[in-house]
Amino acid sequence: MPLKFDPIGLCRSPYTDKFGIPRQPRLITAAEARIELLPPYAREEAFDGLEGFSHVWLVFVFHDDCLDAGWKPQVRPPRLGGRDKVGVFASRSPYRPNPIGISAVAQQGLERNGKHLYLRVAGADLLDGTPILDIKPYVPYADAIADAAGGFAQKPPGSRFEVRFSEQARHGIAEHDPDGRRRLAELIEQVIAQDPRPGYMDRYPERRQFSLKLYALNIDWEIDGTFATVTAIRAQAL
């Protein structure tokens, strides 16, 4: 029997392109986002009591190209280098029978801007514009299982690159984040340090130059061994 759900909100995040999105929540602590609540859910009383919870679960839809992409019984997780296969239900691949995901993020309170109500969150791993189906409080005694096994993802990924900024890139940060409110330098460093490239890129060692998008900016960077240098930060062409 088909089921129909209406989004309660949309995620407004710095990730305007899939390339660069962390593969799990809370890996990029500088990533701050807002959940824009949609009518009739944009009501403060719907969040009474949430101030006592430090984190929430976001239940969301993998939109973009996932809705019509279909699914396969086996996938190649990036954590395994994009080579080895596991069952789709042993992965968090967005290409699922129903493209639904969950993320545990820090909640930082409500923000009202005219008719618009937002829930501020940190550590999100969601593409800008992601439809949010539900918000639930994170309950530590039930949700944190101390002796749980993590299969092939037992430990969080470490930093792969030491990130440096060229003089031109530093000028770009000063231009596009003059007051530091976006935490742009920290965000770029955290995203690139964990290597946002697809796992299969190890097969192409000759490619050293890359670009990713954050907010409305193009971030150009290049790699040399264990170093990644941000070479330029440019506004995207309209």
Automatic annotation (TrEMBL):
Domain TsaA-like, first and last residues per copy: 5-147
Entries under InterPro entries matching the protein: TrmO-like_N, TrmO_C, UPF0066_cons_site, YaeB-like, YaeB-like_sf, YaeB_N_sf
Keywords: S-adenosyl-L-methionine
GO MF entries: tRNA (L-threonylcarbamoyladenosine(37)-C2) methyltransferase activity
Record SUPFAM superfamilies: YaeB-like (SSF118196)
Pfam families: TrmO_C, TrmO_N
Top-level taxon of origin: Bacteria
Family, per entry: Belongs to the tRNA methyltransferase O family.
UniProt name for this protein: tRNA (N6-threonylcarbamoyladenosine(37)-N6)-methyltransferase TrmO
Organism: Halochromatium glycolicum
Gene, per the UniProt record: tsaA
